[in-house]
Write a structure and sequence with these properties.
A: alpha/beta, Rossmann fold, B: 612 residues, alpha/beta, Pyruvate-ferredoxin Oxidoreductase, domain 3, 3 domains, seven-stranded mixed β-sheet, 23 strands, oxidoreductase activity, acting on the aldehyde or oxo group of donors (chain B), oxidoreductase (chain B), magnesium ion binding (chain B)
C-alpha cells in the first residue's frame, strides 16, 4: 500500500487510482430496499456520483453504519462496509480509523441512531476529532421501528408512542455538534444534489471529524417534514445557504440577509440595512457558526445550509499514530527485555 | 545479647494499616526482597474500594499478605504468622485471623483514646489482657521515625509518613532480608524529591537498627531460598502478566494491537501497563465508555489489528451486544474480564468467579464464545497468549476470565524463552478469485479475514444474519438454522489441550475440579489431605468453552466429583448439564479467595465419605 499525498489534507494517506471511476463502480450487487420515495435513495445516488471525483482506490473506502433505515447504506456501496449495532458506529469507525490511516472512513447514521442511543459516542468522536465523515440522515422520526418520535421531532409531535403529543424538546444537531467541539459541521437537503455534493466534498477534504446533517424525507412515517424547504418559493425565504468568506444573503435576488443582533444573529431585509452590516461568513469563527446554527428553527422558518464550521485542529488518530511512531523510534521492540524487566534472579541447577 | 536465629520453611506476614499508610507499597517491597532472596512466594493485597475512607476506621483498613517459603507454594497463605498493625482499626480487622502464639507488631502511636473509640474498643487492647495469647511487640513507630528523621529538617507530618518504611526495615531485619533493593527502589521512586527519598531510606534503616539494637526481639528467622526449577525468574502480578501476554501475542502474530477500554477496578492496570509499550505497536484508547471501548477494539480488528478490550463484570454487561456483533461478523477479539464481586457494582476491590455463566451465555441468541481462565498471576501470560491464539485462528471473540485475586496477586514467574513461544501469525485473504466473505476453512471453520484496503475483496458485513458462504443478508429459515449450528460447531471444534489430572498416589476415588484462581488453594488443600493419607485427584480447567475433549472421561472415572467455586456453583452446573455427572458444589462468595485449610476439611470429609 502506498500512501500518496493528494494535497488534500482530509485524504492524506489514502491511496488514489488513475483508473477512471463512475457512479456505477460504487453500486453493489445488492437490491436497494428502502421504501419508494425515500430520501435515502437520493443521498445514495449523490454519494455514488460524488465518490469517483475523489479518485480514491475503492478498496480503501469504508462505510460503517449503526442501526436504522439509513444504516442499510453500506450494503449498497461497492466498497468495504460494516452494518454494526445501534448507535455504536462512531466507536467502531474510531477503532478502524486509528488502526488504518490509509482508509477513508464514513459513518452513516440517523437521528435516532446518532442522537438518541449513540449520543455519547457522537459527541466524544467529534470532541476527539477522529478522521471520520459522519453523515447524519435526519428525518425527525424513527422509521425502522415504524414511526415513533425521535430526538429531532418537534415538541407536540403525535406519533404511535405519543398519542397526546411528544413532550421531548428536540436537539438542534448542528448546535450539538458545535458544542461538542466539532471541527467541521455542515448541513444539506437530500433533494439538493448540488448543495449536498458541495458539503460532502468539503467534508471529505477536511482532516478530522466532519458532521454533515442531511434533512431527509421519510415518505411513510413523516412525509413532507421538509416540504416547505422544497417548495421553490418558500425555499427562497427560508433557506440561508452560507459560503465561507461571503456575505450571508438569501432570497431570489439576495433580498434577505443576516445581521448581528445582541450576541446572536437575525434575519433582515437587505434593503433595510447598510451593506457593511451584513455578516460575512467565517467558518473558522465558532461563535458565528453557533449563532448561525441558532438561526435555524425547528419549524423551518429559517434553515441554514452549507458549511457552518471548518477549523484546523489536530486529529485524534494522527496523534495516536504519532505517539506510537515516536515510541517505536525511541525504543526497539525487544520482547525478551520487556519480560525480564528490572529485577530478576536466576536459579541454577 | 546474641539473637537466636531460627530456620523456618515458610512464613506468612500481613501488613495492615490505614489506606493512607502505604501498606501496599510496604508489602510490595517485602515481596521484592523475598523474590531477590530466592524464596517462592505468593501475595494477596486487600484494600477498600474507597480511595481514602475516613482515617482510622474499619472500612479504611488496607492490608497486604505475603507468603514466602523455601519450597514451591501455591497460595498467599490462609492466616498470617506475623501481623503488623499500624493502628487500632488494622488490629481489630485482622487480629481474629492471627493464630495463638502468632507474632503481633503494633504501632502504639495510633492507640489514642479517640482512635480506639472510633473502632469500638472500650479499653486499650495493648493495656488489657486481650492480646496475651500472642507474642506482642509494642513499638512507637511514628515517634521513632520522627526521631530518626529529626536532622533531615523534614516537617513532622512528612517524617511521620515514612513509618511504613520503619516497619519494613524492622521486618527485613527479623527475616534476614537483603536491603539493597529497597534502598535503590526508594531512591528511584522519589528521584525527583531527594529529601523524601533520603527520609524513607533513613526510616527503613531506623527500623532495621531498632531490631538489631533494642534487644526486644530474642529471635530472628531465616527462610532459605526455594528449590525452584532452573531458570531466570521475576516477580509478576496477574494484570502485568496479562498485559505482557498481549504484547507477546502482538509480536508473535506480527499484528498491531489496539486496546479500546474504559477504566474499571480491578482491570485498569492492564490499560496502564499496555499504554507504556507503544514501541511494540500497541495503541491504547481510553474510550468514553465500555461500549465504545469494545467498539474501538472491534473496529480495529476489522481493520486487521488484534483488537483487545479489558474490563470487569459490569463492563462485560455493557459490552455484550458488541461481543454478539463480533460473533456474527466472526472477527478476532480479545475480551478481558477481571472478575470482581457482584452483582451490579458489588465489591469492586474483592475477588469472585461469578461471571462464568455471563461469559458463557450472557448474550442474546445462540452466541457461543470461547472462554479461557488463568489459574495464577504468572499463568495469565500463557493463558492470554492462548486466548489470542484462539481469537486469531478461529476469528472469534474470546473471553478471558481473570479475577481480582490473580490480577492483584503476585508470584515468581520463570521468564519464558521468547523463542519457545508459539507462532501466532495469520494469513489475510488477498485473492479475489472466488472470494466469499463467509466461506470457511474446512479444518477450523474460520471465515477469511479480508481487511479493507485489499483490492477486489470489497464486501459488507454486519449484525444481520448472514447467508452461508456469500455473507449477504439472509432471512431464510434453513440458512439461519445452518448458520447458528455452524457458529456453534466452530467454537466446539476449537483445539484445546486435554485436562491433566494430578493424582500422585494414583488411587484417588475423589476428583476435585476447579477453574481459574482457585488453583492455589485447591492445590494446597489437595497436598494437605494427601499428607493425611487421603488420596485425591485434582483437575484444573483453563478452557471453560469448549471444555477439553477428555473431560467427560476424566469425570466419569471417579466415585465423587467436587467442584469448589467462588460463586453459587456455575461450573458445577455446566458439568452436570454437559456430562450428566453428579458433581457436588462447594461454594463460598465472600469476596476472598478460598483458604487451603477450609478446602482441606471439605475434601477430607468427602474422601472419608466415599471410603466409608
Amino acid at each position: 500500500m502506498t500512501a500518496i499525498d493528494l494535497g488534500i489534507p482530509g485524504l492524506t494517506g489514502v491511496p488514489t487510482t488513475d483508473e477512471k471511476q463512475t457512479a456505477r463502480d460504487y453500486k453493489s450487487d445488492q437490491e436497494v430496499r428502502w421504501c419508494p420515495g425515500c430520501g435515502d435513495y437520493i443521498v445514495l445516488n449523490t454519494m455514488q456520483s460524488f465518490l469517483p471525483s475523489l479518485g480514491l482506490k475503492r478498496e480503501n473506502i469504508v462505510f460503517v453504519s449503526g442501526i436504522g433505515c439509513s444504516s442499510r447504506f453500506p450494503y449498497y456501496m461497492n466498497t468495504y462496509g460494516m452494518h454494526s449495532i445501534h448507535g455504536r458506529a462512531p466507536a467502531i469507525a474510531t477503532g478502524l480509523a486509528v488502526a488504518r490511516p490509509d482508509l477513508s472512513v464514513w459513518v452513516v447514521t440517523g437521528d435516532g441512531d446518532a442522537l438518541s442511543i449513540g449520543g455519547n459516542h457522537l459527541i466524544h468522536t467529534l470532541r476527539r476529532n477522529v478522521n471520520l465523515k459522519i453523515l447524519l440522515f435526519n428525518n425527525r422520526i424513527y422509521g425502522l421501528t415504524k414511526g415513533q418520535y425521535s430526538p429531532t421531532s418537534e415538541e407536540g409531535k403525535v406519533t404511535k408512542s405519543t398519542p397526546l403529543g411528544s413532550l421531548d424538546h428536540p436537539f438542534n444537531p448542528v448546535s450539538l455538534a458545535l458544542g461538542a467541539e466539532a471541527s467541521f459541521v455542515g448541513r444539506a437537503l437530500d433533494s439538493d444534489k448540488a448543495g449536498l455534493t458541495s458539503v460532502l466534498r468539503q467534508a471529505a477534504e477536511h482532516r478530522g471529524s466532519a458532521l454533515v446533517e442531511i434533512y431527509q424525507n421519510c415518505p411513510i412515517f413523516n412525509d413532507g417534514a421538509f416540504d416547505v424547504l422544497k417548495d421553490a418559493d418558500e425555499a427562497q425565504r427560508r433557506i440561508i445557504n452560507v459560503v465561507d468568506g461571503e456575505p450571508i444573503r438569501f432570497g431570489r435576488e439576495g433580498e434577505y440577509c443576516v445581521v448581528r443582533e445582541g450576541f446572536g444573529l437575525a434575519v433582515a431585509k437587505s434593503a433595510d440595512v447598510d451593506a457593511s452590516d451584513i455578516v460575512v461568513h467565517d467558518a473558522s469563527d465558532l461563535n458565528l457558526s453557533f449563532a448561525l446554527s441558532r438561526l435555524s428553527t425547528q419549524d423551518l422558518t429559517h434553515t441554514v445550509t452549507g458549511v457552518f464550521r471548518r477549523a484546523d485542529r489536530p486529529t485524534y488518530d494522527d496523534g495516536v499514530r504519532a505517539q506510537v511512531g515516536a515510541a517505536k523510534a525511541a525504543k526497539p521492540a525487544d520482547l525478551s527485555k520487556l519480560l525480564h524487566g528490572k529485577d530478576t534472579w536466576t536459579v541454577v541447577g | 545479647m546474641s539473637t537466636e536465629t531460627r530456620k523456618l520453611d515458610r512464613v506468612v506476614i500481613r501488613f495492615a494499616g490505614d489506606s493512607g499508610d502505604g501498606m501496599q507499597l510496604t508489602g510490595d517491597r517485602f515481596t521484592s526482597e523475598a523474590a531477590a532472596f530466592g524464596n517462592d512466594l505468593a501475595t494477596q493485597p486487600n484494600f477498600p474500594a474507597e480511595i481514602r475512607a475516613p482515617q482510622g476506621t474499619l472500612p479504611g483498613v488496607s492490608s497486604f499478605q505475603l507468603h514466602f517459603a523455601d519450597y514451591d507454594i501455591l497460595t498467599p497463605g490462609d492466616r498470617p504468622d506475623v501481623l503488623v498493625a499500624m493502628n487500632p482499626a488494622a488490629l481489630k480487622a485482622n487480629v481474629g485471623e492471627l493464630p495463638d502464639g502468632g507474632i503481633l507488631i503494633v504501632n502504639t502511636d495510633e492507640f489514642s483514646k479517640r482512635n480506639l473509640t472510633k473502632v469500638g474498643y472500650d479499653s486499650n487492647p495493648l493495656e488489657d489482657d486481650s492480646l496475651e495469647k500472642f507474642q506482642v511487640h509494642k513499638i512507637a513507630m511514628a515517634t521513632l521515625t520522627i526521631g530518626a528523621l529529626e536532622e533531615t529538617g523534614l516537617g513532622k507530618k512528612d517524617a511521620e509518613r515514612a513509618k511504613n518504611m520503619f516497619a519494613l526495615g524492622l521486618l527485613s531485619w527479623m527475616y534476614h532480608r537483603p536491603t539493597e533493593g529497597t534502598e535503590r527502589f526508594l531512591r528511584e521512586k522519589f528521584a525527583k524529591k531527594p529529601d523524601i527519598a533520603e527520609a524513607n531510606v533513613l526510616a527503613f534503616r531506623a527500623g532495621w537498627n531498632y531490631g538489631e539494637t533494642t534487644e526486644a526481639f530474642a529471635v530472628t528467622y531465616e527462610v532459605a531460598p526455594a528449590k525452584l526449577n532452573v531458570g531466570t525468574y521475576r516477580q509478576i502480578t496477574g494484570n502485568t502478566a496479562t498485559a505482557y501476554g498481549i504484547v507477546a501475542a502482538a509480536q508473535l502474530s506480527k499484528l498491531p494491537v489496539v486496546l479500546g477500554t474504559y477504566p474499571i477496578t480491578p482491570a485498569s492496570d492492564i490499560l496502564h501497563e499496555l499504554s507504556k509499550h507503544k514501541n511494540f505497536d500497541i495503541t491504547t484508547v481510553q474510550a468514553e465508555d465500555e461500549i465504545a471501548g469494545i467498539g474501538i477494539a472491534l473496529g480495529a480488528s476489522y481493520g486487521g489489528a488484534l483488537g483487545v478490550t479489558s474490563t470487569s463484570g459490569p463492563g462485560i454487561a455493557l459490552k455484550s451486544e458488541t461481543i454478539g456483533l463480533a460473533v456474527m461478523t466472526e472477527l478476532p477479539l480479545l475480551v478481558i474480564d477481571v472478575q470482581r464481586g457482584g452483582p451490579s457494582t458489588g465489591l469492586p476491590t474483592k475477588t469472585e468467579q461469578a461471571d462464568l455463566l455471563q461469559a458463557m451465555f450472557g448474550r442474546n441468541g445462540e452466541s457461543p464464545v470461547p472462554i479461557v481462565a488463568p489459574q495464577s498471576p504468572s499463568d495469565c501470560f500463557d493463558a492470554v497468549v492462548d486466548a489470542c491464539r484462539i481469537a486469531l485462528k478461529y476469528r472469534t471473540p474470546v473471553l478471558f476470565l481473570s479475577d481480582g485475586a490473580v490480577a492483584n496477586g503476585s508470584e515468581p514467574w520463570m521468564i519464558p524463552d521468547v523463542e519457545s513461544l508459539p507462532d501466532l501469525t495469520v494469513e489475510f485473504a488477498t485473492d479475489p478469485e472466488n472470494f466469499q466473505p463467509y466461506s470457511r476453512d474446512p479444518e477450523t471453520l474460520a471465515r477469511p479475514w479480508a481487511v479493507p484496503g485489499t483490492p477486489g475483496l470489497q464486501h459488507r458485513i454486519g449484525g444481520l444474519e448472514k447467508q452461508d458462504i456469500t455473507g449477504n443478508i439472509s432471512y431464510d429459515p434453513e440458512n439461519h438454522d445452518k448458520m447458528v449450528r455452524l457458529r456453534q460447531a466452530k467454537i466446539d471444534g476449537i483445539e484445546v489441550p486435554d485436562v491433566e489430572v494430578e493424582d500422585p498416589d494414583g488411587n484417588a476415588r475423589v476428583l476435585v475440579v476447579g477453574w481459574g484462581s482457585s488453583y492455589g488453594p485447591i492445590g494446597a488443600a489437595a497436598r494437605r489431605v494427601r499428607k493425611l493419607g487421603l488420596p485425591v485427584a485434582h483437575a484444573h480447567l483453563r478452557h471453560l468453552n469448549p471444555f477439553p475433549k477428555n473431560l467427560g472421561e476424566v469425570l466419569r472415572k471417579y466415585d465423587k466429583v467436587i467442584v469448589p467455586e467462588m460463586n453459587l456453583g456455575q461450573l458445577a452446573l455446566l458439568l452436570r448439564a454437559k456430562y450428566l455427572v453428579d458433581a457436588v458444589s462447594y461454594t463460598k462468595v465472600q469476596g476472598l479467595p478460598f483458604k487451603a485449610e477450609e478446602l482441606q476439611d471439605v475434601l477430607a470429609d468427602v474422601i472419608k465419605g466415599v471410603s466409608a
